[in-house]
Amino acid sequence: MKIKITKRTKSILLGYVILLVLLYLIIYALPKVTDVFEATQVLEPGTLTVSCDAEGFLVKEEAVVTAKDTGAIEFLLDEGTVVKKGTALVKLEAAPAEDGEEKTVRGRYKPYLKNLINYEHIYSGTKAPISGVYSRHIDGGEKYFCPDNLDNIRREEAEGIDIKDLDLNRTGVIKGEPIFKISGDDNWYIVCWMEAKDAKSYQEGLAVDLQLPAGSVKATVLSNTVEKTSETTSNRVIFYLNAYYEEFSTTRKADMTIVISNNTGLIVDNECITEEDGVKGVYVVTKNNEYIFKPVKVKATDGKQSVLYDGVFTNEKYEQVKTVNVYDEAVKNPKDNNNIKNNNQEKNKTEGLK
């Protein structure tokens, strides 16, 4: 059966098709030609929080002290006390081993002492061999996670060490057993690993806040290097600290949030940032509808937005470079903007005639 379409219906269908074509031209074709719907962003001052979660390993100078005799022991100070070198920390009264007790180090301490073979900072006595924080705990990582070995710490080895905290509190000891530890707190470090996309924000010398389980501490990025293994590639980031941390002496590894500080400036969407002749910058629209490329220097980024220096910044050659100012209007996706392309073409022609 044939269906007859009336003239009125044909007119409606034709009008509908024309409307669709017009909508297409308005939404897609027209902006590409004239950029009448050009997207821009006004640069305004603000603060951007950039953070990354990671597992950090504490690296510190640690002196492990063992008993010089077998006998009864009394601890004289509370754990966590900051002591000076030479401070008496335990009282040891030498006495023969109890009946049936071997005159050798108890088995529970042997795995820890095995990790400390040839460790330069193991001592025998009752006084603090160095200044620092006093504790009655060891974990077996004292030798590997020490400043002398800082450059040699690798992810696979660090994560492969069986770190188990051992409480040294007791009333009797056998000669050679560990009895306390002093952790130097003047200069210490935290090592962690992160993906390249996160690590690029943490450049050498950058000040950060490390949010640890027992509180936040200020640190500085000491180094940021790529570390490759047979299976993965990641960035090893080392932080330098000289700040007080409550659980410093008893912590070896901890989950932490790394927050970049000093990240106040002009906020810009990353889609505004482009590169011209190897220089990073943004295109700014002037009051005369001209497009000017302005170099920028990024303080920090969270992957979506960045914080820029305002007015002037110093480049790698220690030159002063004029940059964006507050309330500048930056163009989004400048490489796809036809007005900018036409502007650059006209500029090139003009320069070619000179």
Outline the secondary-structure elements.
Elements: H1 7-34, E1 40-42, E2 44-47, E3 51-59, E4 62-66, E5 71-75, E6 82-83, E7 90-94, H2 110-115, E8 122-124, E9 132-135, E10 137-138, H3 155-160, E11 166-167, E12 172-173, E13 178-183, E14 188-194, H4 196-199, E15 207-212, E16 215-228, E17 233-241, E18 253-260, E19 264-269, E20 274-276, E21 279-285, E22 291-295, E23 298-301, E24 305-308, E25 312-314, E26 320-322, E27 329-331, H5 338-353
Parallel strand pairs: 4-8
Antiparallel strand pairs: 1-27, 2-19, 3-14, 3-18, 4-13, 5-7, 5-12, 6-9, 9-13, 10-11, 14-17, 15-16, 15-18, 16-17, 19-24, 20-21, 21-22, 23-24, 25-26
Commentary on this structure:
- With about 350 residues, this protein is an alpha+beta fold.
- About 15% of the residues lie in helices and about 40% in strands.
- The strands form eight sheets. The protein has a six-stranded antiparallel β-barrel with strand order 3-14-17-16-15-18. Strands 6-9-13-4-8 form a five-stranded mixed sheet, with no helix packed on it.
- A hairpin with a 2-residue loop joins strand 15 and strand 16.
- The longest helix has 28 residues.
- The radius of gyration is 33 Å and the shape is elongated.
- It starts with 6 loop residues before the first helix and ends with a helix.
